[in-house]
Amino acid sequence: MTLALNLFLASVEKRAFRMARFATRQDADALEVVQEAMMKLVQQYASRPETEWKPLFYRILENCLTDWHRQQQRQRRWFVFWNSAKTDHSRDEDPLDNIAPATDNTRWSEPAHNNGPEHNLARERQQQAVLALLEDLPLQQQQCFLLRCWEGLSVQETADAMGISSGSVKTHLHRVRQKLDHLCQNHQLDQEASHETG
Amino acid sequence: MKPVDPSHTGSSNNTVSTATHIALQALDQSVQDMPDDISLRLRQQRLRALALQQEQPQPRRKGLWPFPAPLTAALASAVLITLAFWLNAPEPQTAPSVAQNPVPDQVLENDLNTDEWTELTQLSNEDWDMLQDLEFAIWLSEQPDESLQSDRAG
Fold first, then answer.
1. Contact call for B45 and A14, based on CB within 8 A
2. What is the pTM of this model?
């Protein structure tokens, strides 16, 4: 039991940290949230069948993240003047507005047979732009995309983990894909423009 | 529960699939490039959680008593309260007078209707004494005065 649980936690801990890091934007808070989720899984659900561990773990993680955000909101209310300069309003805005335009080196379509330093640099920039987009997404859209597309949970499991309906999950996913599509198109237009001017 | 294949995301064109694919690649890459100190701390946290599980006491084996503790306590309280009321219940007031003053057989042998019998049962001790004295006086008055007759004869 302990060995299986160890293997399971080892397989999800880094991804869980990445998800928590997206949501909290701080390493220390993300580590704390992941630890709390691990503790709760071990203490309360270790006796469950192994097949249930993954959806259970992510449900716990989502609950911990929700609690963390509520706590942050309470703190913001008390220290509104202190944090006014640091308050991040981007979560209520369209994240596409905050993404820097693509540089000339950004390439969204993989250049065929190109493994040189330019290709690597372009790919790195692509990934950074995508990660920035994901980080700026509203929390529910972000977590829906990560759970469904990255972690591979089903729509129902994602809905259960987040405490929302399946329809809401599909709506969030659709919006994330639209934003990714929009981002991709913008970068392609920039790329074409740069080629024409060059 | 495999991650979603970007080519089956239901998108209408390849652009979105490519964007999703790049996003998933970026996420995987970010996990692979995770700093060592973060990986180390995650590993420590995992081991701490597992140690907590080993320290956790085993759940107590449930006994044969099939009812939950709150239900058992409620039932026990109800039984105690009922028993206390039953033991302290006041006895009927008419019963003692009947028990302490049983109706004499002579009275029962007579033809008494219900109302008369009810009145008799409600008599107190003094009433009974007075009634018996009265009966004795009546009986005595009905007896022939033999002593006087013997005196006269003597």
1. no
2. 0.58
